[in-house]
Protein: SPFH/Band 7/PHB domain protein
Amino acid sequence: MNPILLGFLVVFVLFVILVLARTVRIVPQARAGVVERFGKYKETLNAGLNIVVPFVDKVRYLIDLREQVVSFPPQPVITEDNLVVSIDTVIYFQVTDPIAATYEIANYIQAIEQLTMTTLRNIVGGMDLEETLTSRDQINSGLRGVLDEATGKWGIRVNRVELKGIDPPPSIKDSMEKQMRADREKRAVILTAEGQRQAAILTAEGNKQSMILNAEGDRESVILRAQANRESAILRAQGEAQAITNVFQAIHDGQPDQSLLAYQYLQMLPKIAEGDANKVWVIPSEITKALEGLGSAVHEVAGIPLKSEGVRHRVADYGSEERLATGADRELAGTNKAVEEAIAEAEHAAHPGSTPAPGDIVDSESPEQPPPPPAPPAQ
Structure:
């Protein structure tokens, strides 16, 4: 083949390939191509396969329609109390109009950065440091409102604005740490004091309740003890009354006489001599007169007769009617006789040859003694 013809063929193929490359445009998804014809906007290419006039139409810009995130470096901002803080921000935006984003502003990223910095200084300049540190949501809302309004004509929608960090000066950080430490210590002291106060209140209430319960217990104890003493005294008095009634009834039922009282007196004489202080015990010679005086005194005071008649009851047999009617009388008569004999022997031993005086106790079975001779008249 002719080399000239071959060269021409190769040039033609290359030209065809170049024309096809200039004619066919493939735009990726979520992208938009701005086409200019002789330097003037002609159309916007959507995603997919697009055909343009080669060497006449030119795709000037390929705009990304996805939401973009741009982080700006920290910017110094002065607060209302003249403190310089460094604030770095993050902007979330999206291109909604590729034509406006291309022809309304030269560099919308840089424009957003500068607009964010100026707006941030304007908002933070009206706040003090404490309010700036605690008002992130308010600052974000203010920035988003201003940026969205300003970038609307650029074909850009600001979706969200975030403050990454607010860094005060080192000296302010130290002061804030000291203030925070002091505040925490203060709260700790307050909580400790409140705990001690609550504990003291609970302790006092417990002591009060304990004292009340102890007082109520003491009162109940005193009341129960008084009731027990009253019941005991009543029962003791009833017992004593019953005992006195039984003894009194037994004495009246037994019908005692002077002989029984004399016998009881003789039985009490040895008990009189008992004790360490009784060294000497003198039996009076006039024992019969003493017995007679004792009997007469008892007779006068208690109204006990010298001789009793009728059935005599013993205390030991009190309550047994059969024994009272049979052997009790004989046994009591024997006892009285023994007492009379003992008194007569004692009188005879004290005064041998003397006759019993009037009122002396003598044996009822002994023969009658002649009356004593009359005393001689006085000279």
User: Anything to note?
Assistant: The CA atoms of residues 120 and 265 lie 131 Å apart. The two ends are 227 Å apart (CA to CA). The beta strands are 24-27, 31-37, 40-45, 48-51, 57-64, 68-71, 75-78, 84-95, 156-167.
